[in-house]
Amino acid sequence: MGLDMYLKSEQYLWDEESDDLVEQIKNQNKHKLRPTSIRYDAIYWRKANHIHKWFVDNVQNGNDDCKDYYLSLKTLLKLREVCYKVLDERNEELSKKLLPTYQGCFYGSYEYDDYYYDAVRYTANSIDNLVVIRGFEKMDLIYYSSW
């Protein structure tokens, strides 16, 4: 029980680049159904309430409702930029301004401690790892949470 957060990337299989993958999938299912997309787990967080708050404020229009929210790569890169600013300064006052903690039932710690900064570093590094994937800029990005 607690706050779980997910960034998914979804690749649509309607272009020539994906024909080989589509054929492999079709050959493995007896009904020869054609898949239209594949959804990947891009980033998973647990009880990183400050990262969740950033998504609620910047992607979900203030709605904390466990629904899927699409975001652009540009928006994801803004999160990475904020994370690096917080890590560069490692100052509680700036952290409270840029990535404040967010209270909720079983949302984790509200302290600006090592756990907080580890989640910020994990987020920045995870985004860095995603943006170098060939074709990532063409994928749809979806954020959702549950608790």
* DSSP strand count: 4
Q: What value does the average pLDDT take?
A: 90
**N-end to C-end Cα span:** 6 Å
How many helical stretches? 5
Residue runs with pLDDT of under 50 for 5 or more positions: none
Overall SS class: alpha+beta
Total domains, how many? 1
Taking the sheet with the most strands, its summary is:
4 strands, antiparallel
Summarize the topology.
Blueprint: E1 4-12, H1 19-28, E2 37-46, H2 49-58, E3 69-71, H3 73-89, H4 92-98, H5 114-131, E4 140-146
Antiparallel strand pairs: 1-2, 1-4, 3-4
What this model shows, in words?
The chain has 147 residues and is an alpha+beta fold. It has one domain. The protein has five helices and four strands. A four-stranded antiparallel β-sheet has the order 2-1-4-3. The model has no long low-confidence stretch (mean pLDDT 90).
Concise structural overview:
This protein is of the alpha+beta class and about 150 residues long. The chain has helices spanning about 20-30, 50-60, 75-90, 90-100, 115-130; strands at about 5-10, 35-45, 70, 140-145.
Comma- or semicolon-separated keywords:
147 residues; alpha+beta; 5 helices
